[in-house]
Amino acid sequence: MRKEDCFYLGKIVSKYSYKGEVLAKLDTDEPEAYENMESVFVLMKGNNLVPFFIDRSRLHKSDLLRIDFEEVKDEASADRIMGHELYLPLAMLPPLKDDQFYFHEIIDFSVNDKSIGDIGKVVGVNDSTAQAILIVDKDGKQILIPITDDIVLKVDRKTRTVFVNAPEGLIDLYLT
Description:
Elements: E1 6-15, E2 22-26, E3 39-44, E4 48-60, E5 64-69, H1 75-81, E6 85-89, E7 110-113, E8 117-126, E9 133-138, E10 141-146, E11 152-156, E12 161-164, H2 170-175
Parallel strand pairs: 7-12
Antiparallel strand pairs: 1-2, 1-6, 2-5, 3-4, 3-6, 4-5, 7-8, 8-9, 9-10, 11-12
Pfam families: PRC_RimM, RimM
Family: Belongs to the RimM family.
Subunit structure: Binds ribosomal protein uS19.
């Protein structure tokens, strides 16, 4: 499995017991959707995704997932995967309503502003800041547009277009 074919689920953050159980911090609004997984990919050294099978998993304090892996049955084994990231295949993402979208799916979509019209293509999304930001390329220039309900009006999957209503002057700021 390639990393490009997967989505980031979370990270193993601590050991839970001397029997190898670990706690994973999930990067999701609905952690309960991942409570009964059979397996998960663990990102190991060399950027390799390795499948790990799960004996049992359950929520722990609402946003942590307590995982008992088949292959991890002692503290030393748990130490080897500590801090490693967890991934699942893109096909396992829950379906979204029409007005919602996953960041990875809008890459290469056209961006159309309500006032200006076509302003370029989505080349990425920066979600490491307090506010997620759409990264748009317009003839080699980068335009950054905050992703909010007021600004992102609609994502049309059929035409592969993101419709926005950028604040007045924002796009011109990048193009001048």
